[in-house]
Amino acid sequence: MNYRKKFIVRPGDKLKLADIDPAFKASEKSAETAAEAIETYRQRLSNLQKLLYAENQHALLVVLQAMDAGGKDGTIGHVMGAWNPQGATVTSFKTPTPPEAAHDFLWRVHPHVPGRGEIAIFNRSHYEDVLVGRVHKLIDKASCKRRYEDICAFEELLVGNATKIVKFFLHISKEEQLARFEQRLDDPSRNWKISEADYKERPYWDDYMDAYEDALNATSKKNAPWYVIPANHKWFRNLAVSQILAETMEDMHMHYPEPSVDLTEIRRQYHAALAKERSSS
Ligand code: ATP
Ligand code: MG
Fold it and tell me: Ligand 1 atom closest to Cα of 72?
């Protein structure tokens, strides 16, 4: 199945999150049956990152948003596993520090965008400012609308500077969130992930869904699209995200650069060196 077509938020459409089943898994049966496809995309992603790095002409920005326990960390672990850390960075955006809060909301984000040849993943992002900000009424409706426009202008600036932007909302159900919180309680190796904030935000679930819907509808653009990924099944989420990233990168029509040296001459030197070393041994 083509997940880019299936999960994209079409610019101009009015997406309703309630219409998307977080437990959707296409015709895939299980993690085991999807394992081969997941591995193929991982390989493709690995090769594509090498190409992006070598070509040094394009940048890729991946934005990840989700409710708490939505699977941002797991997704990052999966896709970063395919990429060489020399060419890929992850930035996690937390509650703004006082200096960050004293500036415009894009100030802290801009230094982390990818340069040519690089991939940057945002674990949360500038979208928090139209999500938490709106849910907790830190900004009014008019300011929120202005921020959508600021975000679109900012992303357009990046797109105009050879950056491809892909944005994922990892969509889990409210029940799945609670199940994951429970796993965090039961598993000592996950206890550290529990925070009181998780439970504080849960009663605002519906407000968050409304805020996500509006933000995704207002900011999904041809060159900076949003995808809503059904994410109750972690393996399906990894499959869909990897396919979308691989196909997006393939569309960038990248090529390995021409060698900077004359290969015929280098080959001649290589054979001369080989012959000399063989004759003296
Ligand atoms: P984890 O999976 O480890 O819980 P996390 O991304 O939830 O990852 P936390 O440290 O738990 O990390 O939470 C970060 C918090 O920072 C979130 O509650 C998020 O809403 C908040 N945050 C991020 N950006 C902003 C912002 N611009 N304004 C207000 N709050 C923000
Ligand atoms: Mg958290």
Answer: 2
CA distances from 19 to 14, 16, 66, 79 (A): 11, 6, 17, 27
The SS3 call for residue 100 is helix
Q: Is the pLDDT of residue 137 over 90?
A: yes
Domains and CATH numbers, the chain: 3-280 (3.40.50.300)
Is the pLDDT score of 190 beyond 90?
Answer: no
The C-alpha atoms of residue 90 and residue 167 are separated, in whole angstroms, by 14
What is the whole-number distance in angstroms between the Cα of residue 32 and the centre of ligand 2? 29
- Looking at residue 83, its pLDDT comes to 97
Cα dihedral sign for 73, 77, 78, 80?
A: positive
**Nearest residue (CA) to ligand 1, atom 3:** 193
Distance of CA 106 to the CA centre of its chain: 18
Measured distance CA(194)–CA(188) in Å, rounded: 11
Ligand 1 nearest atom to the CA of residue 69, by list position? 2
pTM of the entire structure?
Answer: 0.95
Model confidence band, residue 197 (pLDDT cutoffs 50, 70, 90): confident
Q: Which of 92, 132, 172, 198 to mutate to test the pocket of ligand 1 (most atoms within 8 A of CB)?
A: 132
Q: Identify the pLDDT of residue 228.
A: 98
Give the pocket of ligand 1 (CB within 6 Å).
68, 73, 93-96, 124, 128-129, 132, 193, 195, 197
Ligand closest to Cα of 93 equals 1
Q: What is the pLDDT of residues 40-72, one digit of tens each?
A: 999 999 999 999 999 999 999 999 999 999 999
